[in-house]
Amino acid sequence: MAAAEQWAWLARIRRTQGRKGEVFAEILTDFPEKFAERAELWLIHAPTPGSSEPLPTRVDLTAHWRHKDGVVLHFAGIDSISAAEALVGRVVAIPRPQRMRLGEGEAYIGDLIGCTLVNVAGPLPVDVGRIADVDRSAGAAPLLIVRGASGEILVPFARSYLHRLDLEGRRVEMALPEGLVDLNRETGLRQKGQ
Q1: Which residues of 86-111 are buried (b: 16+ CB within 10 A; e: fewer)?
Q2: Structural domains present in the chain
Q3: DSSP per residue over 29-58, as a string?
């Protein structure tokens, strides 16, 4: 079970926390209370284009607690800062069959990554690009980080824009406001030119 599509992402480890091997993680699930029910977790590498993914590592969660906008996790056998540093950037996940069922129009972040975003606001559908990541810290709606032919585009994953979610077909259809894609492109170009 090495392919990223076979995993449900729960958190992404951002940094070490404390001196006894704890790590601070960004929460990628709407059900953080479920950490209390999960002793067995897996650490995977977030997929990057063109690279082979190292095998997932099974870990036992010995302690966790909410901290600011994230969660602090402590795994068995990770008892030092240097051991915790080796985990930074890894994704905490469970096998897909173990995840909670979601309602209509809801998706797990790991399921969105790699999907093609299609703008269906006009008379013809337009491919915007592939969803590379999701930024949940940007505000009320998570931001889809989309990589297209013109570079990186940021698109709010707002329910009011969502037209159709086809995860099996790896396609997210959204009716985006006029000018949103172009505005994002112009902002990205200005930031790169600075």
Answers
A1: ebeebbbbbeeeebeeeeeeeebbbb
A2: 4-97 (2.40.30.60), 109-193 (2.30.30.240)
A3: -S-GGGGGG-SEEEEEEPP-TT-PPPPPEE
Tens digits of residue pLDDT in 55-97:
889 999 999 999 988 999 999 999 999 999 999 999 999 988 8
Q: Which sign does the torsion angle of CA 24, 28, 30, 34 carry?
A: negative
Sign, CA dihedral 104-106-112-115, equals positive
Residue 89 backbone phi and psi in degrees, to 5? 95, -15
3-class secondary-structure state, position 75? strand
- The 10 Å Cβ neighbour count of residue 27 is 17
